[in-house]
Amino acid sequence: LNDKLPIPLKILVNSMKNVVNSFVPSGKIVQLVDQKLPGLLDNLSGPFEEEMKGIADVTEIPLGEIISFNIFYEFFTICTSIITEDKEGKYMWNVNNNTWVVTEELKPLTVNLDFQRNNKTVFKATSFAGYVGMLTGFKPGLFSLTLNERFSMNGGYIGILEWILGKKDAMWIGFITRSVLENSTSYEEAKNILTKTKLLAPAYFILGGNQSGEGCVITRERKDSLDVYELDPKNGRWYVVQTNYDRWKSPFFLDDRRTPTKMCLNRTTQENLSFSTLYDVLSTKPLTVFTTLIDVTKGHYETYLRDCPDPCIGW
């Protein structure tokens, strides 16, 4: 964190507190977070706990509030993701991360990260300052990964409750994505981990590789994988689209991002795929914090802070 980042992070944390206090005006929930959450969620796997303590020290924000920011996926997030294959078999990995609390307050916290070991890049990612997990990233030449929230009655709040009660055999969402980006060495290894690992919250993992046909959406319950939907370019499936609804179900009519995204992709055609055309496709809905464009094989990685452009217009 540089000297400027603690202020926007404090603004965002205060917004979170205001939302909570609007439902429970007594302030007791925030007090519980400040005083009890670090103890309730102890034994987080390293290096996540140590990093959150360091962020709390630098920003002078209570550790409980830093932890609550870092487990926000288990409560809130909305995303749209696309994975495509062009005629030459190259992959464009495109992520449209949307607001979960206040879009404008997340924008100044958006950072591009280059994780290195022995002065060599291990993976690159786009995240928010103060958040130690990962939402969007890639290992150059190997695979790309992002996650979308999946609504379920068996949601993240149940996983958090189980953790508090002592059942700690599941992974926090942001932590597993970072672990896969850091440690997995192939598309198949990443897919296996994301398909089989127990999670604290349901999710969609969208994974792209470096070979023809390597690209999939993994639909997860907390303990099981429900569906792995893969690219099949030989049979005409040159893209897969994932928002926040199971692909076999109709999206909520007020939140149908799937239909306009598919319309724009079909209008674009496989022959015309590029960063610019896919950026425009990902402009079909507003309320976006950032859009990330990734070409795994070429190692290209671009992130743009977003406003609210007209449908299919943006580049």
TrEMBL record:
Organism domain of life: Eukaryota
Subcellular location: Lysosome; Secreted
Keywords from the UniProt entry: Disulfide bond, Glycoprotein, Hydrolase, Lipid metabolism, Lysosome, Secreted, Signal, Sphingolipid metabolism
Chain ranges of the Choloylglycine hydrolase/NAAA C-terminal domain: 79-301
Any GO MF annotation of the entry: fatty acid amide hydrolase activity
Main location: other
BP GO annotations: fatty acid metabolic process; sphingolipid metabolic process
Reaction catalysis annotation: an N-acylsphing-4-enine + H2O = sphing-4-enine + a fatty acid
A GO CC annotation given for this chain: lysosome
Pathway participation: Lipid metabolism; sphingolipid metabolism; Sphingolipid metabolism
Keyword Thylakoid in annotation: no
The EC number(s) this enzyme carries: 3.5.1.23
Catalytic center residues: C79
Record's subunit section: Heterodimer; disulfide-linked. The heterodimer is composed of the disulfide-linked alpha and beta chains produced by autocatalytic cleavage of the precursor.
Membership in a protein family: Belongs to the acid ceramidase family.
Protein name: Acid ceramidase
Organism of derivation: Spermophilus dauricus (Daurian ground squirrel)
